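Provenance and format

Records in this collection were gathered into a single text stream. Each protein contributes a sequence line and a token line. The two records reproduced below are adjacent in the stream.
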Amino acid sequence: MAETKFNELGLKKNILKAIDDMGYTTPSKIQEQIIPVILEGHDVIGQAQTGTGKTLAFGAPLLSNLVKTQGKISSIILTPTRELAIQISEELKRISKHSKAKLLPVYGGSPIERQIKSIRKGIDIVVGTPGRVLDLIGRRVLKLDSIQFLVIDEADEMLNMGFIDDMREIISNSNDDRQTMLFSATMPSKIKDLARNYMSEDTKHVAVVRKSMTVSTVTQYYFEVNQRNRFESLCRVLDVDNPSIAIIFCKTKKGVDKLVEDMQGKGYNVEGMHGDMSQNQRLNTLKKLKNGKLTYLVATDVAARGIDVENMSHVINYDIPQDIESYVHRIGRTGRANKKGLAYTFVSRRERSFLRQIEKSTKSKITKKDVPTIEDIVASKWEKIEEEIRETISNGQYEDFISFAKDLNKEEDSVNLTAALVSMIYGKNVKQDYSENNITSSGKDVRLFLTAGRMDKLNPKKLLEFLSDHASTNKEDIGDIDIFEKFTFIDAKEDVVENIISECNGKRLCGRKLKIEVAKNRK
């Protein structure tokens, strides 16, 4: 069956010319199905996963049908994050290249006075985050009483971030005869209620559901690690794979800061991104990533929303995501435009069951991979060093040093000499001082059960100090710590277990007389 072309969808010539300038000829599934429906004037719900071209899907018909009204806003586009607001605005500018629509992204962290000044000069389309849009409405600068289009993008993420009431208030400030478009990867009940209450009865629902929720070009692996060797495992993976550009996900802002500090301490080209950082910081970091001046970005889920960087070779889940949807969104950062991508996830033993849930829901395979050994790292680095040596020889970029090599060769065997030079180069290329060849087989962990928990105000720091004081353990001896309401589980190195049980049993921890034993069943 012949593929549909953009020029068959009913878009105006100036929009088609801009799309052609962008290098697109064939629409994606969501674009093919929803553009004609929007052009007909229907309210629409577009349901598709991230990375499917939703911005062009609503932007092209919106701009094609846009009627400019002097001194009034014609369209408002709501999006959950600053980065996504900027990205959508940039995409719309490209689509409107030959139609000269005036666009403005509005978001917190940028001076509101400039945004007010721009709106008063005359803007056709505003792309904004809910908080800043409401602020501008409250100041009576942004008036939505005669808009032609209202677009809500990433509606499910808006819901997750607590913007549902903001969305309702913004919609209530707009005119009833607008055309409304709602885009969402999933359709939770509150989003369905929003559509039912604020969209027309003949709203068209266009759903493009992949057979697999994940990107087919992404190969997925997991590494089983514990907290003690998680960072070294990451370093080993990076030193073997040498990613071109990678995004590394952490659960918390604090986790991002800690990992960035640790990675920078080992010499990796890395920066972080999370909600506590200034807008300028975040934009500068994103610019470096897109320009190839940054290799690794460590980010939280919310901060990474909307990041779309070409040639992203790896997505690494340093912390496992909180839900399946977050996993799908994370790994969707790589494997775009039919390019190959890799997704790695670090999990503890107790988190493996969640991976099975992801596999079942996404109908994909996440394969176990062993953490690289020192031998793997040496082999990977040698391959790169050998390639550089051969390239240097072929380019003749060594002739000035031949006399020095001859002098050395008089005193040293050529094999020893070459090995020494390679060793020096290897040392400069490996970020971590690895001591054990295989960290996953260097002694088993034993699961221990302790009769103290959150109700006793126990936390990991207090527990580690207690074990250090009474059993002379150090942080490296203890792996995962799972604190529940009335009890706690810890992973401890096999060679310290006997000492922990004998020295800590019967002692008081957080006011409670402690009982410790080897866990019968892993929780």
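Adjacent record:
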Amino acid sequence: MPKPAPFQARFQLDIQGHLGPVHQLAVSPDGKHLLSADAQELRVWDLATRQPLHRWFAPWMGMEPGHLLRFALSPDGRWVVVLTLNRWRDTLGAAAPARSELQVYELATGNLQAASTWPGFVQDLAFSADGRQLLLACDPGAGEATQLQLLGLRALLQARFRPWPVPLARLQGLGGEGLRLALRSVPGGGWLLAAQARRSPGALVWLAWDRRAGLQVQRQVHTPVGLQVRTLACSARHAVVAGYGSPRRDGRLGQLLSYRHDGQALPRTLTESLPAALAFDAMGTGLLVGLQVDGARPPVDGVAVFGADLPPARPGSAAYFNGPPMPEEEGLGLQSVQVNAYAVAGDALTLCSSYFGHDDSVRALAWAGAGLALSSGGDNQALHAWSTECRFPVRRWALRGSGRNCFAPGIDADEQLRFGVLPPRLLPPQHPQRQQCFDLRSRSLSTTRASDVDPDDYASEKWLVAGELSPVIQLGHLDDAMAALDALAEKAVDAATFPADLSLYVGADDEWLLWSRSGFYDASPRGAQRAGYCIDRGREQEALFVPADRFKAFYRPDLIAAIVRHGSEERARRAGVAIPQLALAQMLPPLLELSRGGVAVEGGRVTLRFSVQQLGAGAPLERVWVVANERFAWELKRSDAAWPRRRGRQREQQFEVRLPLRPGRNVFKLCAETADAKAVPLICRVDGPALASAPAAAPDLPAPGRLHLLCVGVSQMAVAGTPQAQGFKNLRYAHRDAIAVFKALARRRGQAAGPLHNPAFSAVQGELLTDVAATRAAVLAALERLCAPLRASAQAGAPRDVLMVFLAGHGARFAGEQDLYFFTHDVEPASMDRSGLSLLELGRLVTSVAAEVVLVIDTCHAALAGDDVIASLSPEELGQRLHALNERGLTLLSAARGDEIARENPLTRQGLFTGALLDTLADTRFYAPGPPGQRALTLLGLMHGIETLVPLASAQAGTKPQTPVCRSYGDLLPLTLYRR
């Protein structure tokens, strides 16, 4: 058996939208799904919720992704056939033959069903009206004539991943190399082809096929001017295509050429500029016309501009999708570009609506029902929905990601990267600019003062900047980039071997992401959500997108800082920085899939059967677990006796789990991990038994479980006052804070040695550690004692236990370290990796138990001493990373934002945050009604009280502002912490 080829993987942004211009839109026949494609990916959206469902990526082309040229949706809406170009030029100066591929996906599941390769360039494709055949325009290259091939859809599906199936029919003699073709299905049957050759007007060709006569030309019409063939649109009665040139001498107007299917030409319709896309509605009574930016060239001797001696456009380029090269970049952002909607009555086109909502050529159009148009062009690749029922409509809604184009990026000698984010059309004439400014050295974002762009802003002698009109700014070391350009000039190397040394993405929400060639990255708190990796699993499986938080090795701010300092990964390595050479394809996360009949419900319990496939040849599967309704419910480790020892042919292991169902909707999250990466969770939703009528207790106060409470306060450090403290000083009240919170939440019953009690819980187990007793080993041991009984009772449906950890003391993050550390009594700041208590290490323990986890942090969140200490992790980032450890719920209450210091109040002899927490416990304003005669303080009430009282306390104490941060990750279910 041949050894399977290794998977390929590459860094991939996830901006919840398109990164490049959208060149094709389509709506499924049932109106439920929208398909949108750019040159590298096709997205499927749920139109009801406007949420993404599937992402299909273009295959790789050497070191670059290939080009997604076109797609065709079957008339029944079941199949999507995607046409990609997988190879164009391997090296400059040595042209390799093109290789195109058809990929057939099932729309409902997103699964790849078949793929076949054509050893040439396929320009376009179209389904037959009944969906049984697929017509393709194939260009073999090497000067051979272009030919049409008719494939049977059933034969294509049955071929699976074998070579190109035998065509049902062929038609040749359409012209030589360089002929541009576009194919469309005629709703009544047959196909229409638009053709444009060099130095000649265009042509429209009507085609038909039957089993006896084969594929034949029914009629052919030569157009008076050259055609923009990609704009071809068909209804059951008409064919319309954009033509170059116009009766105006300057040629700035565009025109629509209209024909009946009997070949009869209809009056031409002038447009404000050259059309870039056309689309009929399902009934053929409405026509959308998207225009290009105003830059059309005049015709040459009455023939289209394509008649000039221009080389054929490279497939995948803007020129390929939009006709011959146009100076669109000069107009992008300088004007509003419109979409016209025409009513089709008889053979006449009547303008009824013009939508001005785009700032680039409108290349993609579709109808989402009667009177609702969809269009895309500029506007940071957003998809707009608007009504054609009024003459100048406004946008109803838009599908847009967080990306936005950057204008005029540049970098100065201080490594301040400046770029504009507003299109010039939105600024008044001669308006001074404000730019975004990203400081590479500190990785911080700011806004410049209002001024003109100064040449000194682009005076860096270290960096070369690219990325104009793109959401991603690319930086390369200047010396290396110039050497690469010299090599390219000699046509000695492939341009794709010189990717950017650093790439910067700044979203519309001001969250940023900075990554290197190898995929190491630094990010703002929510910017890390945009990082991911596209995994190409070969031609027989669809590519996967894996978020970056599935891996354990790529969030490396220290390595990004070293690359900024030295200019590239290789230069940093030569300077002694240990940047690992990571083989991403060898450390891929496992893949979870439900088995056949994978969800079975019987007798109030559910059985989940699923497989876990190990991708690549990296570390083996270590652990599999299930989270039921945001509670840790089941786990199996590699060291357990029940671990399956046999693996399937595709390195799959089978698992079966039986769990109880609670009434109503149940959500099960299936998880798995290796030593290097974690799988994307597989979510299963199962309906449980019907809810009983009229519960005896209040529905928001479920049966009380146990409280497991750990309070740690460290005011005194053993190394305080010595050089090993690195400037950190003792605190005054952190130990008092821990004692006060412990006494407030876990009172003693009766005598001093009596059991702990909290009226909201059936039992309380507590640990209190302060100062000398709060060593790193003691804290971990106490936490283990609290977690052990929780692990033993890991059963779904049990009373809701709560694990609450309170920390008061110093907290900081150090250069070269990814973690936020809490300072225990025996900490040595010079060796935090062995003496400090990492909060992520703490998180691995607290999020691995069957309990609701509440983590309360009253620590200093700012740089306090020396150049080795930098600002800590923000509360948002910390919470996201803790939540990602075990894919379950977590509530994080933090004393201050990442750029603020958690203060102590000498008046109350407590931390401001802890004082507000205790005041909330005593203030009935924040309590909710409970059982008769009682009031309950829920977790939401505690968060509300803390967020209300901390700013008041900081103002009363006369300190600098302190803003608490309260975040919940996972489902926030009603949870009572105290009753009065």
